Structures are given as structure tokens and as C-alpha cells.
Amino acid sequence: MAVSRFDRLWFRVAALCAFVVLAAACGDGGLLDGVGTRSQDAVLGDLSTTSTIPIRVDEQRTLGVVISADLTWWNDGIEGEAAGEKNYVVAKVWERNPHQRSHQASRREILQVLPNVAFPGVVPEDVRFVTSQLNFDTASATIDVESSAAFGLWPVEPYSIQDASLAVLRVGEAGEFRIDGIVADIVDAGLSLSWTAGLYRYELFCRTGVNDELCWQMAESTVSLASQIPPST
Hints:
Layout: E1 2-3, H1 8-17, H2 19-22, E2 52-56, E3 62-67, E4 72-73, H3 86-96, E5 102-104, H4 107-113, E6 118-120, E7 122-124, E8 129-137, E9 142-143, E10 149-154, E11 167-173, E12 183-187, E13 190-197, E14 200-207, H5 212-220, E15 222-224
Parallel strand pairs: 4-8
Antiparallel strand pairs: 1-12, 2-3, 3-7, 5-8, 6-15, 8-9, 8-10, 10-11, 11-14, 12-13, 13-14
């Protein structure tokens, strides 16, 4: 069921009433297509230091966000990182894992394939890591236009704990399909927000347990991904 921005009050009330119950649950898998498949040992590791920015939700609860540029981007500096024109980068990323749909890719690689793509400027303060992938049409070894890239937001080392990601952002080509503003869908495992901007269509899925206000905050804070990458040293 799609709802407008004016229905957010209902989401906030429902989230607050159910917080104690939902805080213990991460939600079921199955909705995280494109997050990636690389596994790691179950080691949390050192968490990165980030700056917490408080935002006021209501008079009884204060939630916080952190700047996404300060997070650990899991695939930045990936081995064999490709640079060049779009078709070259697509071919080099495909070679890492032929015939698989999702391929780990760095932010710079994604920007060379999807120029001007955006990403939330802030994320919930529990997030410490971001994974990034390019998704392929396996029959043609070309980028999937419907779901070209995916970003996973993790509170712990990615893939070390099953279904630990808090949110997933998927990006595809908008084409002639346009969304007026941000629309929401309540799904079994959480909240899904969709919108179009520029050349792209964005779908942000937040798992049950992530406060709805924070999910909206992410969607409304998007900035150019290029602006979040530090200069090369």
C-alpha cells in the first residue's frame, strides 16, 4: 500500500508503540537481493569512529544519525579496482565473478557506471559499514537497468552475521517511470521508500526495528555520492 509523506505520523506512532517488541527482531531475509554474497568469519572487528548528530523525533525520544561519508565503505580500494570509461569498468567488474548477478564494487567504480548517482548524507547512528555492488543481467553480462546497484548498511562487519544489515538502498534507471515525491510501502519485514531523482529510481528498504523517522531521514538527505568520496592521496 503506497502512502504519501503526510501519512508519516501514523508510522511514527506505530513504531513507538511497537518499539519494545521490534527492537529484539532483525526481520526475515529474502528482501535483500543485490546486497552481495561474500562471506566473512563472525568477527565484529573495530568499529569506526563517527560523528553523531541528534535529531528530535518527539518530546519523549531522541534518535541520532551519523554522516555516511565517515563510515567504513567495505569495497573502497577493492583488489583490481577498475578505472576508465563505462564499458571497460563494467567488463572488469564482471570478470571478478562471471555469471553471478551481484558483484562487489567500489564507490568509484559505481560512479563510473552510474554517473551522478546519489546516496543518503546521513544514516542511523548504529550503522558502521556500507557495502556496494553492481548488479548484472547475467545473460548479456551488462548492467541490470532495473536494479543497477545496491548498497547495504551494516552495524557490524558485513556478512559476519546473517541478516545483520539494517537497510538496503537499490538504484535503477528511472527511464520514463517517475515518482512524485517519496512514497512508502509497508512490507512484512519493514518499510520501503521509493522515489526518482535525475536519471535514477531509488528504493530504500529499512528492516523492522529501524525507526521509521530515521528511514525517512535517510531518503530525504540524499546527496551526490561523488561528494562523499575523499580526494585520492
